[in-house]
Model the fold of this input.
Amino acid sequence: MKLTRRGFFKIAGATGAAAATNRSAPAGASAPPDDPYGCLVDLTRCIGCRKCEEACNRVNGLPPPEEPFEDPTVLNRLRRPDEKAFTVVNRYFPGQLDASNQLVPTFVKIQCMHCQEPACASACIVGALTKKENGTVHYDVTKCIGCRYCMVACPFEIPAYEYHDPITPRVMKCTFCFERISKEGGLPGCAEICPTEAITFGRRQTLLKVAKDRIRDNPARYIDRIYGEKEVGGTSWMYISAVPFEKLGFIDVPNEPTPKLAETIQHTLFSYLWSPIVLYGLLGGIMWTSHKNRAEDEDEEGDRR
Amino acid sequence: MTHHPYPLKTRFWTPGVVVLAVLMAAGALTILARFIGGIGYVSNLSTARPWGLWIGVDVASGVALAAGGFTTAFLAHIVGRHYYEPVVRPALLTAMLGYTFVVLGLLIDIGRSWAIWKPMIFWNFDSVLFEVAMCVMFYLNVLYIEFVPVVVEQFKGRVNLPGPLAGLNGPAESLLGLADRVLGKIMWVFVIAGVVLSCMHQSSLGSLMLVAPTKVHPLWYTPILPLLFLTSAIAVGYPMVVFETTIATSSFKLDGEMRVLGPLTRITIWLLGLYMALKIGDMVVRGTWVYLLDGTAQTNAFLAEMILGVIAPWLMLLSDKVRHNRRALFAACAMIVGGVLLNRINVFVVAYKPPVSEANYFPAVGEILITVGLIATLMFIYRFLVTHLPVLSAPAREVSS
Done:
């Protein structure tokens, strides 16, 4: 149990800790894993075949797509992952030309980034979302109440929701194939099928080294940036690219984990419930004094009569 | 006080109440649709815009506008200004109903309504929402306990259950007697707890959006957002009391209680002034005034919130004339209430712009029907309760010839 970080309601938390020992540590209460698994996506290798989308659909048992995975016209519009597709590939024309003056496309696979310090897990009211040691940001549907605060918190707008299920809707997002990668030698569906090895699965530290080596060995091929190395405190999924990420739909995010401010305020104010206790005492004092004064006033009035 | 609270016992079904009933029926049908077709069937909520009208109005504004409960309790029962006693019960009733409807609104908004109890078992101390939920849960119970004496006062010694339930008259009577004896002695525990819990979650509601720094417009995204939420909730407490008391006394043709409301809003000058100073100071310190004239919908919403909802009514309240004139005071207080309502909608809906998809949102008809239906139900129950329980103490207006 890593309950070392300051927790508000700590007094109450102490009693609950015993009950919590057979569960994983509450979301965010654990430090980010030292060397989680991750995936490195090399955008210079991706050919936009959408095999990863198909594999993802299959291994996660998602409903069949409206348009077949072989249909290339799907790429004519920009898509976002949703409750029926945990990953999508989008095509961008960032302006590079080939030998015959044709615009060169860059394909970008989108899915949950599996942040090292996930905002969704910090936000989750019941700790249904947790960062696992193997790198997965894991969703436990049995705890979820459907408040969708994770969706508000996620800086990458990833978690989707089954809005059309009236009673048991789920938050839907890339699982990092938690079951598969938990087995020895297991790969996420998308990484396993990728025909161009655009997706490399491995330990995050190793992947960072691989990425840096590729950039160093081929400075003409890559820009010198790994998206996900530092973004929002680092992510398990990382990207390297030939063109600036801003041209490929990647947003600028701070290097600080986004829930930091909210957590700091919350923990500062409520650790050991100190502020409510002080306020209670203060108000009790005021109440006692005002009632005493009132009683004395009434006594005096009584004396005068 | 010269007048004690008494049940009004007036005619219940007036034309206004019929309108409420129609709105309630429309809301009920939409709620039915939500539980048949899902949230997506009646709302415009999406992946990029997971929170909309229901969170902005039913929950956030519901909590803020119920602040009359703890602010009047503080004034009359903690500081001991018993002069203001006549507004404590109506404010308490509004708070009790307000929070009840916050929970009802949540039950509709959360996807798994049946799982709403789970935060009691699964705790996440990092989650601002967890703290808010715990406080709201405890505070709702505190409000119910604080309301028990009103029920006891009405029924103690006169329990007369109909027909087959008559056998329970004895037990019910002794229960009321017990509540009367015990609660009188320990009510102070709950009165203080109510104020403490309110301060906690009123401020934490502001911390909720701090988790999304890249999504909330800088005009609203500030580290002091929790302080702004707390001070605005405290500031809106008495204006909300004026707002609802004026509506209630007009509707029931009672005396306007200006004797109490005028002095009450004198305090608001300081409270609203503090909120205004913090809000403007925050804007100056962070330099966000540069956005003010860029003409976007967000900026205009901010200007409306500040000018119409804070600055103008504050200036109005400075005038003695306004504070002694029933209509003018009502107008000023309605503007303050509207300003806080708009602030909550702004923070949770208008200021929220997802940077990747830049998705827009406008509430669907279904969302509006449910929100309006819930508010109508709240007013309906308020009317029912003040008709049958001793809540209001204003005497009937004297008929002038």
About this structure: The first strand of chain A starts at residue 37 and ends at 42. Strands of chain A lie at 37-42, 88-92, 106-110, 129-131, 137-139, 160-161, 171-172, 199-203, 237-240. The CA atoms of residues 156 and 180 of chain A lie 24 Å apart.
